[in-house]
TrEMBL record:
<dbReference type="InterPro" id="IPR007110">
    <property type="entry name" value="Ig-like_dom"/>
</dbReference>
<dbReference type="InterPro" id="IPR036179">
    <property type="entry name" value="Ig-like_dom_sf"/>
</dbReference>
<feature type="domain" description="Ig-like">
    <location>
        <begin position="821"/>
        <end position="910"/>
    </location>
</feature>
<feature type="domain" description="Ig-like">
    <location>
        <begin position="374"/>
        <end position="464"/>
    </location>
</feature>
<feature type="domain" description="Ig-like">
    <location>
        <begin position="486"/>
        <end position="575"/>
    </location>
</feature>
<dbReference type="InterPro" id="IPR013783">
    <property type="entry name" value="Ig-like_fold"/>
</dbReference>
<protein>
    <recommendedName>
        <fullName>Ig-like domain-containing protein</fullName>
    </recommendedName>
</protein>
<dbReference type="GO" id="GO:0050852">
    <property type="term" value="P:T cell receptor signaling pathway"/>
</dbReference>
<feature type="domain" description="Ig-like">
    <location>
        <begin position="597"/>
        <end position="688"/>
    </location>
</feature>
<dbReference type="GO" id="GO:0001817">
    <property type="term" value="P:regulation of cytokine production"/>
</dbReference>
<feature type="domain" description="Ig-like">
    <location>
        <begin position="934"/>
        <end position="1025"/>
    </location>
</feature>
<feature type="domain" description="Ig-like">
    <location>
        <begin position="151"/>
        <end position="251"/>
    </location>
</feature>
<dbReference type="InterPro" id="IPR003599">
    <property type="entry name" value="Ig_sub"/>
</dbReference>
<dbReference type="InterPro" id="IPR050504">
    <property type="entry name" value="IgSF_BTN/MOG"/>
</dbReference>
<dbReference type="GO" id="GO:0005102">
    <property type="term" value="F:signaling receptor binding"/>
</dbReference>
<feature type="domain" description="Ig-like">
    <location>
        <begin position="24"/>
        <end position="130"/>
    </location>
</feature>
<feature type="domain" description="Ig-like">
    <location>
        <begin position="257"/>
        <end position="363"/>
    </location>
</feature>
Length: 1057
């Protein structure tokens, strides 16, 4: 409440001095309105929102009636008090519930008026009148001039692109509406918030979607405005008006001047003098101040009434600053800053007090960046580290010297004619220095200094000998500071967690905190100074993920909170504090952060579908990659931009993998793997592409274990058999094959690249081997040679897994060795249907299985559970095979093979699945021989002609052709094999008279050309072809040639019958 008893009058000059002494932050906070009135009048200044007392005292106590009035109220009064009661009948509405008497008893004649929550509309001339009991007449006691002003402007500087808060506080919570406006916008407003919602009808378009209240609940009367992404067009004076339930109109609460300007950036080198230019709008400047926010309330320069005022100047600027023109002609208020250092880097502001407006104005923002001059660098290292002092020459160098001034005539390193010269080297550098590149390619003469200590601190000079001038030239100067390492901690966190990197400075006098990571420089993790975060050079991966544990940094606590950590966050973090005492950065703490991805173990059985769970920390995921180390560079699944990418997917996962949720809601990037097999057992990695860092982030590791299937293999006595087994990865050091009835002896043990025979069962000596001793692609299959009936049993394949440090069974195989059945041979001509007989000894047959050795894992026919299974049937047998009796009565499992071709020639095996043993048993073995029915042709031709005896083999895989005539055997007509003719046993009559029509034998054409025939050529010719499939000669064609001599003619004709 303002005291109005003081009658002291303030003159204009004294008022001005009071304003100047307060500095720019004061901004007319105690502005007094000076008016020259009669001696009976008082002048009362007040700020809007205050409660004020208008003092008035009557000469005696016998007061009958009291009235406070103001002439401009049109006959209405401010307050009327009669017979100890208020009379509101004629009270002006604006004063309802806002006025009271200081003392309703009016003791000692005190009739002072209390006026609450004043506004600028309350400005005016108030009159106090009373009626006394004795006179019953009105008398003036007091006249008071009340002048209400809006609280002084608060100047807020900002740069384009920033978000700005214009603070404003209403006196209580009873607020119904708040309005922010700017005079230059006319009747448009900046923001209007009424009854809990925004009204945008009359909002200026430039503020749509850019303004908000700091607290829409307006708790504690907070009606501050948030203005986002400011531009220079937002510069101006903003006014905040508030309406409360008891009021009929909005009252002005605050005024804020926002200045948005592009800051100037001024680069300088340490040691230089720089001028920070600034010009005020006119010459009538009374006071000037240059400041920098990080100086803790101290200024750079304060100039008033043509004198410097050093009272509040920061010590670092004493005797180093001046005005370019102390007369400030043409408004020039530029600052000269001498002998700048890196510590002078910062944002400088120039404020001037304008006499016309009686207010402070900001005329310039300048960012000064001071760097060391070229060739001179400062490097800070921790003791024990290796450091590289960089230096690059412009020309080819033959002589180089690194020196340090405090070492006298001894040097750090001298290099001459491609070798080090140790003669005058200082002992402390022996075996600790080297060149980064001894060949000094591209002029690189950088020095590596190993295992540095604090004694290595000093100024190092890189000098080269210039042949042109025959003199040494220093091309680089580096000041190396070596400090003992601070507290060094290691913190381990899991992906997705929030982690706190603790750091405590030795005292509270911290001006800024700077968190860095060496591999990210020059970008930082976090920079906090002057009470706000500096995001200009922050690494993108940390935006919105880091904060200080305590922004007040109480008790020196500058710990960093790092949210939602990822694998890429692993590294060594440095905590540096800017200490006010030394005005420099100090390394306080080193923390190594280790991030371990989520790791799980999952077991599934062959044939199941399994989900490998993985949840990424963010929802904004565009790409997910599932990999397996043993498959690289091929992947399991790649999903990006809403589509699967199959280009480099491993074939074994085609049509077997999918995402649990293709929308990846809540970061769910889990993998569905269908119909798993033993080959799917491996460690899977889930990676997500993070847009902020533009890199892949490992989220989860899952080890999938698939127990082995149990297989049954039937082999015949004397055969070699392979018991297949494939381990889930390549990193195999030991494999063990066992048979339960032989324990503790084993079948085979292979470890560290060799066989271990110590406890091998004698029956397997020299009879077992691995299919691949290098175990490529996890192949640990066993070859068992010359099997016997005693080899029958359950064989288990064990692999030692490095991940689990244990043996795991990866395959179980039941080997059944039987005596070989009698082998039958059936010969049939191509094109015929043939029945391959197979008769089981009993009726209790559950299935039949016809195979052919050359088909691999594909079969001829599989019939089980009353139906044929086509899944792995060889394509050549589809729709060509059937059982003679699908009910297999009396054990009949004979196979009908239709329309046989030469390619069907092979050994067929018939297996029956026996109900008694629940195993497959070999019943019958049949060799099918398929021959072509030979063509039989007759050709008649006349002597002297050339004739072609046609012959075409069924395919191109021909190794040789052999033409014969029965009456000439053992001599032949033509033999062609391995790409050439064989004349050794050729009949003499055919020499130089026969050839093939096509020596390439394309499309099986092996036709014979016989030239200049005679009657002696008459006979039966046979065309034989050597077939690679059967490794035998086959007759393809038979031709009877008849040669006649036409009477009286020299030529003839050829007929084919």
């Amino acid at each position: 409440m303002t005291d109005l008893n003081n009658k002291h009058r303030v003159g204009p000059e004294e008022l001005q001095d009071l304003e100047m002494a307060a500095g720019p932050q004061w901004l007319c906070a105690n502005l007094l309105f000076v008016m020259f009135v009669s001696a009976d009048e008082k002048i009362i200044p007040a700020e809007s929102g205050q409660d004020v007392t208008l003092t008035c005292r009557a000469t005696n106590k016998n007061i009958y009636t009291l009235e406070w009035s103001r002439a401009d109220l049109g006959g209405k009064n401010v307050l009327f008090y009669w017979k100890h009661h208020f009379d509101p009948a004629n009270q002006h509405p604006s004063f309802k519930n806002r006025v009271d008497l200081k003392d309703r008893q009016m003791k000692d004649g005190d009739v002072s008026l209390i006026l609450k929550d004043v506004t600028i509309d309350d400005t005016g001339r108030y009159e106090c009148r009373v009626v006394m009991e004795q006179t019953r007449s009105w008398g003036f006691i007091s006249i008071i001039n009340l002048r209400v002003v809006v609280p002084p402007d608060k100047i807020i500087p900002a740069e384009p692109g920033q978000d700005v808060t214009l603070t404003s506080q209403a006196p209580n919570n009873n607020i119904t509406a708040v309005k922010w406006s700017r005079a230059d916008l006319g009747d448009k407003n900046v923001l209007l918030y009424r009854d809990g919602k925004f009204e945008t009808d009359n909002q200026h378009p430039s503020f749509k979607n850019r303004v908000d209240l700091q607290d829409r609940q307006m708790k504690a009367g907070d009606v501050s405005l948030i203005l986002k992404n400011v531009t220079t067009a937002d510069t101006g004076t903003y006014e905040c008006r508030v309406a409360q339930k008891s009021e009929e109109r909005m009252k002005l609460r605050s005024r804020r001047s926002l200045i948005v300007a592009e800051p100037k950036t001024l680069p300088a080198e340490s040691g230089q003098n720089v001028t920070l230019t600034s010009r005020a709008p006119n010459k009538n400047i009374y006071t000037l101040e240059w400041s920098r926010a990080d100086l803790g309330g101290k200024n750079v320069l304060f100039y008033q009434k043509h004198h410097f005022d050093p009272a509040n100047q920061h010590p670092s600027f004493k005797n180093r600053v001046d005005l370019k023109d102390r007369q400030m002609k043409d408004g020039d208020v530029s600052l000269i800053l001498k002998d700048v250092t890196i510590n002078d880097t910062g944002r400088y502001e120039c404020h001037v007090f304008m006499t016309e407006t009686r207010s402070w104005e900001v005329t310039s923002f300048i960012n000064l960046r001071v760097v060391d001059p070229p060739g001179q660098k400062n490097i800070t290292a921790l003791s024990g580290q290796d450091v590289t002092l960089t230096c690059r020459a412009q020309k080819k160098i033959t002589v180089l010297k690194w020196s340090r001034a405090d070492l006298g005539s001894e040097y750090v390193l001298q290099y001459h004619d491609n070798q080090s010269v140790p003669d005058d080297q200082h002992p402390s550098f022996k075996n600790r220095v080297d060149l980064q590149d001894r060949e000094m390619k591209d002029g690189d003469v950088s020095l590596i200094l190993k295992d540095v200590t604090t004694n290595d601190t000093g100024t190092y000079e890189c000098g080269v000998f210039m042949e042109e001038t025959r003199s040494w030239e220093v091309i680089s100067i580096i000041y190396l500071t070596v400090v003992d390492p601070p507290e060094h901690k290691t913190i381990t966190a899991e992906s997705g967690q929030d982690v706190t990197l603790t750091c405590r400075a030795p005292n509270n006098n911290i001006r800024a905190v700077y968190w860095t990571r060496a591999d990210l420089l020059p970008e930082h993790v976090l920079l906090y100074q002057d009470g706000q975060f500096d995001r200009e050079d922050q690494h993108p991966s940390f935006k919105n993920r880091v904060d200080l544990q305590d922004r007040q940094m109480k008790d020196g606590d500058v710990s960093l909170i790092l949210k939602d950590v990822m694998m890429n966050d692993a590294g060594t973090y440095q905590c540096l504090g800017f200490m006010a005492e030394t005005h420099s950065l100090k390394l306080i703490s080193l923390i190594y952060l280790s991030i371990s991805p989520e790791q799980k173990f999952l077991k599934a059985e062959s044939g199941q579908d399994v989900t490998l769970t993985c949840r990424a920390p963010k929802n904004n995921i565009r790409r997910v990659l599932w990999t397996r180390a043993d498959l690289l560079p091929e992947h399991v699944l790649l999903y990006e931009d809403g589509h699967f990418d199959p280009d480099n997917q491993h074939p074994s996962f085609k049509n077997r993998v999918d995402l649990h949720d293709r929308q990846m809601k809540d970061g769910d990037v889990s993998l569905i793997l269908k119909d798993v097999t033993i080959n799917d057992a491996e460690t899977y990695k889930c990676l997500v592409f993070m847009e902020k860092t533009r890199s892949w982030e490992l989220i989860s590791l899952i080890y999938l274990r698939v127990p082995p299937d149990e297989k049954t293999i039937t082999a015949e006595y004397g055969q070699d058999v392979t018991l297949t087994c494939r381990a889930p990865n390549n990193n195999i050091r030991r494999v063990l094959w066992t048979r339960a009835d032989l324990l503790p002896e084993y079948v085979l043990l292979y470890q560290d690249g060799r066989f271990d025979p110590d406890k091998q069962h004698p029956s397997f000596n020299n009879r077992v081997d691995l299919q691949n001793r290098k175990m490529k692609n996890g192949d640990v299959s066993l070859i068992l040679k010359n099997v016997m009936i005693n080899d029958t049993g359950i064989h288990k394949c064990h692999v030692f897994m490095a991940e689990t440090d244990s043996w795991e069974i990866t395959s179980i195989i039941y080997l059944n060795v039987v005596d070989p059945p009698d082998e039958k041979t059936i010969t049939v001509e191509s094109g015929q249907d043939v029945t391959l007989p197979c008769q089981a000894p009993k009726n209790n047959i559950r299935g039949v299985y016809w195979t052919r050795a050359d088909l691999g894992d594909e079969y001829v026919l599989l019939y089980k559970d009353g139906r044929s299974d086509p899944d792995k049937q060889h394509p050549s047998f589809k729709n060509r095979v059937d059982l003679q009796d699908i009910k297999m009565k009396h054990g009949n499992m004979s196979l009908i093979l239709k329309d046989v071709t030469i390619n069907d020639a092979e050994t067929y095996m018939c297996h029956g699945f026996m109900a008694e043993t629940l195993s497959w048993v070999l019943i019958s073995t049949i060799y099918l021989s398929v021959v072509h029915p030979p063509d039989k042709k007759t050709i008649i031709t006349e002597s002297g002609q050339d004739v072609t005896l046609t012959c075409r083999a069924p395919n191109n895989n021909i190794r040789g052709v052999y033409w014969t005539r029965a009456d000439l055997v053992p001599e032949y007509v033509l033999l062609y094999q391995d790409g050439r003719f064989d004349p050794d046993d050729q009949h003499p009559s055919f020499k130089n008279r026969v050839d093939l029509q096509d020596r390439q034998m394309k499309d099986g054409d092996v036709s014979l050309i016989l030239k200049n025939v005679t009657i002696n050529d008459t006979g039966t010719y046979e065309c034989h072809v050597f077939m690679a499939e059967t490794d035998s000669w086959e007759i393809i064609s038979i031709i009877y040639l008849v040669v006649v001599v036409p009477p009286g003619q020299t030529g003839g004709h050829t007929d084919e019958l």
